Amino acid sequence: MKNVPEGATVEGSLDGRPLTFFAYAGGHAALVGLDLEQKPGAHTWRVAVLDREREPRTARGQVQIRRRDFPVQRLQLPPAMVEPDPETERRAVLEGQRMQTLYRTITPERLWRGRFTRPVGGTEPATGFGARRIINGLARAPHGGADYSAPKGTPVVAANGGRVALVAEFFFPGRLVIVDHGLGLYTLYFHLDSVEVTEGQRLERGQTLGTVGATGRATGPHLHFGAQVGTARVDPAALLNLSVLD
Ligand SMILES: [Zn+2]
């Protein structure tokens, strides 16, 4: 959005959910995240420029969200990883809630700049985003991230500038780092073998945060890389392909 007067603020929403605008390339922009289970169809957006001096200027319109089909993945895992005992189940639920609470926390400052970089070296694309998972014959939650297969010990780097929001060892994700890029954008790094950062630490794009491992629910060493815009699980490939002007 361009030609916004100095001192004016920009507000907007998609389907009534507020968007967070930031100064970008001489104008204002907001990052919209669509969850992998978002229903296709027409969605209404609204933008307002609020200026103390004049009447607010508003615009509204619709975006069409197209259907995307995801692959089906069949996995065999040790029963203990799929049907945890009640205590472990409770633990996993609490850990999930803790992450959801984090994703709803919006740091009002943009901590990233420029293009996003892949979190492991090489050129092989990550796989499995959105895959409908059938584990030991039962349908489970879709895969919310993308997996890079890489040998244990491979360095894992921050996809862009941010602040370490969480370092933990959780049941399903294993040893993990979550990076807050500001304005509701988070990247997730799961199943790590080692972690080299601490909570609150500022990271540059490309800075090593840990190494690839197979901790948590993993069939072998790989990096599970996720991206959240608020509670929306977005395709990390969309983030890496984002053409960024500044
Ligand atoms: Zn994964």
Query: So, the CATH homologous superfamily of the largest domain?
Result: Glucose Permease (Domain IIA)
Strand content: 35-45%
Total beta-strand segments: 18
Estimate nothing, just give the exact number of structural domains: 2
Major sheet, described briefly? 9 strands, antiparallel
Low-confidence stretches: none
| Helix vs. strand class | mainly beta
Helical segment count: 3
* Unique bound compounds: zinc ion
* CATH second-level architecture of the largest domain: Distorted Sandwich
CATH C-level label of the largest domain: Mainly Beta
What do the pLDDT scores average to?
Answer: 94
| CATH topology label of the largest domain | Glucose Permease (Domain IIA)
Cα(first) to Cα(last) distance is 14 Å
Tertiary shape: globular
Q: State the helical fraction.
A: 10-25%
Radius of gyration: 19 Å
Order of helices and strands: EEEEEEEHHEEEEEEEEEEEH
Explain this structure.
This protein is mainly beta and 246 residues long. The chain has two domains: 9-65, no CATH class; 72-240, Glucose Permease (Domain IIA) (Distorted Sandwich). The chain has three helices and 18 strands. The protein has helices spanning 79-82, 86-103, 236-240, and strands at residues 9-14, 17-19, 21-24, 27-30, 41-50, 57-65, 72-75, 132-135, 138-140, 146-149, 155-157, 162-170, 174-182, 185-195, 202-203, 208-212, 222-229, 232-234. The strands form four sheets. Strands 10, 11, 12, 13, 14, 15, 16, 17 and 18 form a nine-stranded antiparallel sheet that branches. Strands 2-1-5-6 form a four-stranded antiparallel sheet, with no helix packed on it. The chain is globular and about 65 Å long. The chain starts with 8 loop residues before the first strand and ends in a 6-residue tail after the last helix. The structure holds zinc ion. Zinc ion is lined by residues 143, 145, 147, 224.
